[in-house]
Each structure stands twice: as C-alpha cells, then as structure tokens.
Amino acid sequence: MSHPTSVAIAVPATTANIGPGFDCLGAALTLYNSFTFSLLSSPPAVVITATGTEAARVSTDESNLAYKAFAKLYEQIGQSVPSVKIDIQLGVPLARGLGSSATAIAAGMLGANILAGSPLSLEAVVKLAVDIEGHPDNVVPALMGGCRLAAKGVNDEWQICDIPWHPSITAIAAIPNFELSTAEARRVLPTSYSRADAIFNTAHLGLLLRGLETGNADWLQAALQDRIHQPYRQALIPGYEAVHQAAIAAGAYGLVISGAGPTLLALAEVTQAEQVQAAIATAWKDQTIDATVQVLQIDHKGAIAQF
User: Fold this and answer.
1) 61 closest CA partner among 46, 71, 44, 75
2) N or C: which end of the chain has fewer CB within 10 A?
3) Rounded to two decimals, what is the model's pTM?
4) Could you report the per-residue pLDDT of 105-148, keeping only the tens digit for each?
5) Domain 169-296 - what CATH class?
C-alpha cells in the first residue's frame, strides 16, 4: 500500500490546569493552528513557511518544534527522517498559555506517523508527545480533543481519562497582547507545599470534575479555586484582580489562568457568556491593556488530519 506524500493537520488550542488541575488537566478549545506536511524528493531537510498570527516569529529551520516532533517520531520507529516542506497557518497566539507549542508537537508527530504509513496507534503517539512536552495537560487534549485528565499508572504508564463537559458551560478566553514565558511562570512557584494546600487542591479538583460533568453552579464557583500555582502567578499578570472581579460580577463561575498565562479563562453558563466577555474586555481596557476576548467552545475532535 502506498503511503500519502502530503497531509494537512488542524490542531486545537488548549487550556491547561483549569484552576486546581495543575499539570494534569486540560481541555481543547475551538481555536486552531493548521500544518501541512509535504514530502520532498531531495534536500534540504526542511522547508518551512508560516502565515497568520505572529507568523514572523516562527522559526523556519530545524529548530522548529513541529519539525523536531516530526523527526522524533521517525527516529522512534527506526526510519530515516525524510526531507519535508511544512506550511503553518497560525490562529493560536504564541506564548499566551493556549498550548501553541503543544499544537506543533501534536501536528509534527501525527504528520510523521501518517506519512510513515501509520505504524503507531494514536495512544502511542500521545505517549510520545507527552514525553517531548514533559507534561500531559496540553498535548493530550490537543491530540484527542475534549477535556482530559492524565495520571501515571502503576507501571509509570500514562492513563488518560476523558472528563465529561456539560454543554451549558462555556469558556471565555481573554488573551492580552503581552507574553509570559512558561519558564518564568514556573520560576515563581514554591518548591514544596503544605499539607493543607495539598488537601485543598485535591478536594477542589474532585469538585471541579463533578462540576464540569453536571454544570452545577455552586460546585463550579467553589471548584475553580487553587493554591498550587495561581496565587503565585497572579502577580505576573497586570490587571488580573480587576479582570477577575469583573468576570465574577458579570456572572462567571470563576476566572483562572490558562496554562502558564497570561491568557485568563472564565467559565460561565452559556447565556451569560457575552455579558462576561464584554465585562472582561472593559476591565482590561480600563487597565490600558489591549486584549482579545473570545467566547470559545470545547473542541471534541482533537487533531484532524486530511490527506
């Protein structure tokens, strides 16, 4: 059977943590990056073009993350890495806490697997992608869609669990025009936590999972609290408190930092979404910060390939 020589892959943005689910919970959102991988018959090893949001900042050599993931999969299956042209269409802003790097890793691995004749299952691709990214909260929903919880099993194997997301719950993403590096956002975290904080987060993550499943407003309002990462990262995001208060006043269940930030994510009942969106936009404008505020749905499909 002949393998395809070109494949186009659309990968959703993701929001990680969702409050208390630090480094283990993430959800795919209806905002996308698209990658087309076309095999070349002769060198160079890679040709990369990029268009769309902040395309000028995408590296176009072998350091490109989509290419590194592409090459890694070929190495994993013991094949030489073919010359490839990668065309990238960006719709997910970079370094904003919306999983832009996870989209590149997901696309590179999926693209390579398809062009190599699909030797690996989706589960195997997911596990390899988690190894590259270092934690599962973005790459897992980017590849599989929906809301996903990942935990290590008894043999150190990742166990991936889909989390039901009630259709009445909408996400409002507030994306400011400044960046926050994941490294910087990790540097501000303490190296250890009290027992009380560990118990607090365990209880709130359990409550969040039930709140997401049922749409129970009281549970969601309580559940979005966190003591592991958000209290330390809020200071890195100008206007955080004002935006938080505005979102709650407009009817949101709560407001969390998306991934490492600086994007903030409000969860609200679907009929309140536009009201919350407007309140957040006004609050950041009052802080003289430009921000794009979008009402987004959960993407249930994950990365989609066409060839």
Assistant:
1) 46
2) N
3) 0.94
4) 999 999 999 999 999 999 999 999 998 888 899 999 999 999 99
5) alpha beta
